[in-house]
Write a structure and sequence with these properties.
Blueprint lengths: L2 E5 L6 E6 L5 H7 L5 E6 L1 H17 L3 E6 L9 H14 L5 E7 L1 H13 L6 E5 L2 H7 L4 E6 L2 E8 L5 E4 L8 H18 L1 H9 L1 H6 L2 H21 L15 H10 L7 H18 L5 H13 L11 H8 L5 E2 L2 E2 L1 E6 L2 E5 L4 H12 L1
Parallel strand pairs: 2-9, 3-4, 3-5, 5-6
Antiparallel strand pairs: 1-2, 7-8, 10-11, 12-13
This protein binds glycine.
C-alpha cells in the first residue's frame, strides 16, 4: 500500500511517499518532469543489495541511471567528498542536467542534497532514505550540508527535495545500532510534539527496537507528519518553530564533533543531548523532574546511551562554540516544559551548561 504526506511550501511543495517498493518511482519522476539522466549517490553495499530493485525499474522505464559511491562513514559528509562527486558529475554532465537520487542514510542525503544545491547552481534531487533516522527526519525538510572537522553541518543550504520515497522494506535489514539511532530521533519527536508517541515508545520498547512492522507503521508516518507540518510552517527556521526539532542536538552535535564523528551515531549523541537538555530544563524550573526521568528511562530502555563517559569536556565546549544556534554571542538551547512541549531559551546560565555538560561526560 502507498500513502503520502505533503510538505506544503508553495512551488517547492513535495510528497513523502511510503511505498512497498521502488516500482512506482519512474512514474512519479515522470509526473514531476524530472530530467532523464538519474545519478544515484549511495554506498556500494547498499547498491549490491538493493541496486537492481532501484535501477531496474528506472532503466526499464527509459531513464539513464548511473551510480556514484561514497564510503560508509559520517566522515564522508565532507567538502572534499562533495567536490569529488561534483567532479564526477561534471565529467559526465556535458550538456545535460542530472537528477540526483540520494539512496542511503543521513550522510548520503545531506551530502547529495548539498551537491544538488550547488552543482550548476542547483539541480533537482530526490531522497530515497534507507535508514530509520533518515526516513523520519533527515530526508525531509531540505537541510543539506557537510561537516567541517571541527563543526558539524557548518557548511550547507536549504534545498528541498522534489520527492521523498520511504521504502518500508529497506528498513528490514537495518543493523540494530542503526535502528536504535533512528529511535533517538523518534524519542525527540515524542518530547517535542507528541506525548502519545512517547507513550507508545514506552509501552512497545521491544517491538520498536526489533523494528517490528507494526511499530514502524505507527512511528514512521507519525514523525513524518510532524516534520512535514513543522517544515511547512517554518522552512528556514526563522520563526522558532523548526528550532524545536533540535531538542538534544546542541550537545549531541558537539559530542559528535568532539569525538571525530567516530564514536557515536547521530541518534546516540542526541540521546545524551536530550538527557542534558532535560536536566537543564528541570534545573531552570521548566520541566517536572518526573518527565525528565521518563526521558532518561525510555532512552535507556531503547538501548541508547544517557551519558558519554570519557569524552573530554574541553573538546565538547570548544565544539559548542561552533553551534549554529549561537546567535549574536548568545546560545540558543531547546528546552522542555514537559513531554510534548519544547521551548527555545537564550538565557541558560553558562555555569549550568558547564555543570550539566561535565556531568554527562564524567
Ligand atoms: N533535523 C532538524 C531539522 O531538519 O530541522
Amino acid at each position: 500500500m502507498t500513502s503520502s504526506i505533503r510538505v506544503s511550501l508553495g512551488e517547492r511543495s513535495y510528497s513523502i511517499v511510503t511505498a512497498p517498493s521502488y516500482a512506482a518511482l519512474p512514474a512519479q519522476l515522470a509526473r514531476l518532469g524530472m530530467p532523464a539522466w538519474a545519478c544515484v549517490v549511495s554506498h556500494q553495499a547498499l547498491l549490491d543489495r538493493f541496486g537492481p530493485e532501484l535501477l531496474g525499474p528506472l532503466r526499464r522505464a527509459g531513464w539513464q541511471a548511473d551510480t556514484i559511491t561514497v564510503p560508509e562513514s559520517e566522515r564522508s559528509k565532507s567538502y572534499a567528498m562533495a567536490e569529488r562527486i561534483m567532479r564526477q558529475l561534471a565529467r559526465r554532465a556535458l550538456m545535460r542536467e542530472p537528477l540526483l537520487l540520494a539512496f542511503g542514510g543521513g550522510v548520503i542525503g545531506d551530502l547529495t542534497g548539498f551537491v544538488a544545491a550547488v552543482f550548476r547552481r542547483g539541480v533537482p534531487y530526490v531522497q530515497l532514505p534507507t535508514t530509520l533516522l533518515a526516513q523520519v527526519d533527515s530526508a525531509i525538510g531540505g537541510k543539506v550540508g557537510v561537516d567541517l572537522p571541527f563543526a558539524k553541518n557548518f557548511v550547507g543550504a536549504f534545498h528541498q527535495p522534489r520527492l521523498v520515497v520511504n521504502h518500508v522494506g529497506v528498513l528490514r535489514s537495518l543493523p540494530l545500532r542503526q535502528r536504535r539511532s533512528g529511535l533517538g530521533e523518534i524519542v525527540k519527536y515524542g518530547v517535542m510534539a507528541d506525548p502519545e508517541l512517547f507513550r507508545y515508545l514506552e509501552t512497545h520498547v521491544r517491538g520498536c527496537v526489533a523494528g517490528h512492522p507494526t511499530a514502524l507503521r505507527v512511528m514512521v508516518p507519525r514523525c513524518c507528519r510532524i516534520k512535514a507540518r513543522v517544515v511547512s510552517q517554518d522552512e528556514r527556521e526563522t520563526r522558532g518553530i523548526r528550532t524545536g526539532l533540535n531538542f538534544g542536538h546542541t550537545l549531541g552535535h558537539a559530542l559528535e564533533t568532539a569525538t571525530g564523528y567516530r564514536r557515536f551515531t547521530h541518534g546516540e549523541a542526541i540521546a545524551v543531548g536530550m538527557v542534558a537538555a532535560s536536566r537543564m530544563s528541570v534545573e531552570m524550573g521548566l520541566m517536572p523532574a518526573s518527565d525528565a526521568a521518563r526521558v532518561t528511562a525510555l532512552l535507556r530502555a531503547l538501548g541508547l546511551p544517557t551519558s558519554a563517559r570519557g569524552v573530554s569536556w574541553s573538546a565538547v565546549s570548544r565544539a559548542l562554540r561552533f553551534d549554529k544556534k549561537f546567535l549574536e554571542g548568545r546560545m540558543r538551547w531547546v528546552l522542555c516544559r514537559g513531554i510534548g512541549r519544547v521551548v527555545v531559551r537564550h538565557d541558560v546560565p553558562p555555569a549550568l551548561i558547564e555543570r550539566v555538560g561535565r556531568a554527562c561526560v564524567a
